[in-house]
Write a structure and sequence with these properties.
With 431 residues, this protein is of the alpha/beta class. The chain has three domains: 114 residues, Nuclear Transport Factor 2, Chain: A, CATH 3.10.450; 231 residues, Rossmann fold (3-Layer(aba) Sandwich); 57 residues, no CATH class. It has 15 helices and 15 strands. Strand 9 and strand 10 form a beta hairpin. Helix 6 packs across helix 7 and helix 8 packs antiparallel against helix 9. The longest helix is centred in the middle third of the chain and has 16 residues. It is globular, with a radius of gyration of 22 Å.
Amino acid sequence: MKRIWLVCALAGGFLVYSGRGRAQAPVPDSTLIDHFMKLNSQGHFEQVLQMLPPAMQQQITAATLQRVWNQATGALGTYRRLIRIQEELRDTMNIAQAKCAFDRGFLTMNFVVNPDHQLIGFHVLAIDSVTAGAGAPGTILVSVPGGRIAGTLLVPEGKGKVPVALIIAGSGPMDRNGNEGTQLRTNCYSMLADSLKDRGIASLRYDKRFVGASADFTGSGEHVKLEDFVSDAEALMKFLRKDRRFSKLIVIGHSEGSLIGMLAAQKQSPDAFISIAGAGEPLDKIMAWQFAQQPEMTLDLQGRLKILLDSLRGDRIVHDLKPPLDRLFNIGVQRFLMSEFKYDPSWEIGHLRMPVLIMGGTHDLQVTPGQAQKLKAAKPDAELVMVPGMNHILKDAPEDREKNLETYTEPALPIDSLLVRSIVAFTKKVP
């Protein structure tokens, strides 16, 4: 489900912001931001530092800017250009979200600009690395309304007709491999795909729209709804159905992808459906529970969150949010949440008319084992497998919260072997 990462200063681990800007000639925000990015790309970090207000210059150095810029270019390659800027006025400040193209992916940043068009803060929202570019082995492109979905299709060699699994990712700007910028490095989907291939099962995993190699879509990511992800999954299911190399189609939905997969499966009728770490309750209930587990969750913040969630349930956007909710629930996020709040996974899974496997991990911090039990109760004929020690990113992890979360940035950790064995065994039984 939703994991809220406050990624700051090119993944450098801090949020830079000051209420007072430096004296500099007012320029259009797009020109200001483009100049900021070009100075970084040219290695002029001292000049970048001089663009920032004094309060920020006391927190960071040119060497820090260089370090975090190198971290971004190490993942994405050379900076190419500023693609688009979307602006939102909050009080007197302009929050400009900029999407920037690099050789191997995209960087999305928020810039805070004051009324005098002075840069007073910035932080990174996502670093989307495109690990398999157009033309790479196994790369596919499927046209959908507004753009194309890019993915990786792995097919075992010399096996004749084989089953194929469509892997649908969880929430947030997660790419086809199970990574999200520098803050979530799991490789869980690429590992799952490789494991299935070794056992004679093909797979298609993909970057969701506005992410990675699927980023070049018309319109704005702020207007994406859950139904868009469902229609994309349907298009990919149709694509796989046309390929004569495949004997049967299995849909695997992880976390939020479980709900997306359920909705798409109702319309496209795959041969089987697998839910991994899928919620059994509507998202608003899951989010309220997740926030309640945070150490910094005060009674005041809990009350403000309840008002926000109640408004979104009623299809009402909230504009006057206070920190930290204003940073976590921008207008685009609110629109998406309103689209997802309408669905109850337990209701949806009960409408599936194909074999179903429900899987969960006993050490999942985000979707508790009880959620899998709710799905099982709604679909009594489904097979249920609870994987001992598996966490939300499909890895074996300690029950301790902090040590569990450390696995989210250790991409070399293998995925749980029982998870793979259970999927393979279930797939073999599907008619």
